[in-house]
Here is the input.
Amino acid sequence: MAISKSQTASAKPTTSRPMLSWKRREQRVAWAFVAPALLLLLIFLIAPFGLAFYLSLTDQRLVPNPNLPTRFVGLKHYLAMWQDATFVRALLNNFLFVAVVVPVQTSFALFLAVLVNQKIKAINVFRTIYFIPVVTIMAIVAVVWTFLYNPDQGIINKFIQTISFGQLGPYRWLEDPKLAFPAIMLMSIWQGVGFQMVIYLAGLQEIPGELYEAAQLDGASAWQQFRFVTLPQLRNTSIFVVISTTIMAFKLFDQVEIMTKGGPNDATVTAMLHIVNSGFRTQKVGYASALSVVFFVIVLLISLGQRIFTRSER
Amino acid sequence: MQRPAIEPTKRWQQSSRRFGIYLLMTGIALFTLFPILFMLVTAIKADESQILREMSTFAAFLPTGELSLQNFRDVFERVPFAQYLINSVIIALSIVICGLFVNSLIAYALARMQFRGQKLLLAIVVALIIIPFQAVAVPLLLIVNQLPWFDGRMTWLDSYHVQIIPFIADAFSIFLFYQFFLNIPKDIEEAALVDGASRFRMYSQIIVPLSRPVFATVAILQFLTHWGDFLWPLMVVRDPAVRPLTVGMQAFFGQMPRQWGDIMAFATMVTLPVLIIFLLFQKWFVQSVASSGVKG
Here is the structure.
């Protein structure tokens, strides 16, 4: 930089000068390319993220009250949240969602992917059908399923009654604290499984065919081929699917907000729902920010887990 | 290759196995489709009491009784549905189009140009992928509530731009573009460099035309995400004039007494356009999902 400055004064052109000015121009052009995205990320992602840490240490409210200036409260919110029964319940629900939905949805997705990976007629029709719920919006799906779960006349109750010859049901799906969360889980699996099926399908098609030929020569049965060729080859895909489902489980909000609003008796409350309720409906932004920070740390730990797990394999 | 003749019993086994597979696949397909079929069929049943009577029977899936588009007309009479639809289209398309430009531009600089701070910037972008939007929603609400806008207002609440601008730059989209650009051979650009082409020309006339697949992938992923956005508009929008379909649906659903025919007509009108687009471009859709899973 210093050299080019001193050279601008001298009238004598040098061979290195066009090169240097080109480099300087390249720098400027590069930053012009970077600037719009970087500016947007700074204002709408990095700044609020930093703000979340700061606000979590204050008693900031959504609408500032001139008589009650915002005060610094230190770690008060972080200590208080573990006494907050709704938050503890919300976290437990998120983990319960992970514990049930991740294994069920992942194995079902893998099963579907293997099923639609066969070279038989009309297989594309089935692939398309299984993917359809993914392109329907969760806000819509939640409303439709509320009707299906209707306690008295809903088709799901009727179906269960019919196949159990009237022994089971009717259930009050979304009003029974024991059933509301499982009902939301079932619907979430229905909506999300197609997404993961496609990811598994992509993974299946990457597996070299020679591996199966070799296994067949060794006399491996179909199950053995699946167990010793397919599963190990899909290891990284599985990690991705499991981790992304886990992270999605922590973001759970739309369907709960529409179907139960966290009820009955906090049976379906989730971390995100509690954050929105605290920050938005009861206006305690400071407390909501502390919850957001904890929420982020959980998601971060899961993502880091993914990194470490995938790296060790490669 | 000569195939060995299959014995009759084996052939019978094979065809019965195939029949079993189709049976299984059809069963799962019915499970997948039944809520959607239910929604479509209920939407065209005019008589609300018939809907309630049939909701627990097989007839719920059959277009029986008095069929009409009355429910759809009701929706338009009860809520500004067309306005919601226009809002959703404007918001989702603006995010997609601006996002394609802004994110590919920074990705091009990161993948192809040399500048100070490049490595640091790349590391920051990758790190930002982990921050979930939900973790910043509440402080972001505080920020947009205080931001000035060109018309002199001192808040961004209740506007289109509050639903668009925060989502244009997206770390994951930048990362997808970056990875794709890295794999484009460099010599094409070097030839352009000798010809004295500017960087923007190289980007717009060489890189962009060569990168259609990744542009389609990012466009579809962003569209799917933001067409369904619910949490953020719920927080920042009160005015029906700028309300998207998702929040419109929730508000409509909350109105008592519930008219299920109308609700299903509303749901149908939200779902059907995307469903048709999906059926037309399903290869792209499926590829975009698959490629989002390849990041590992």
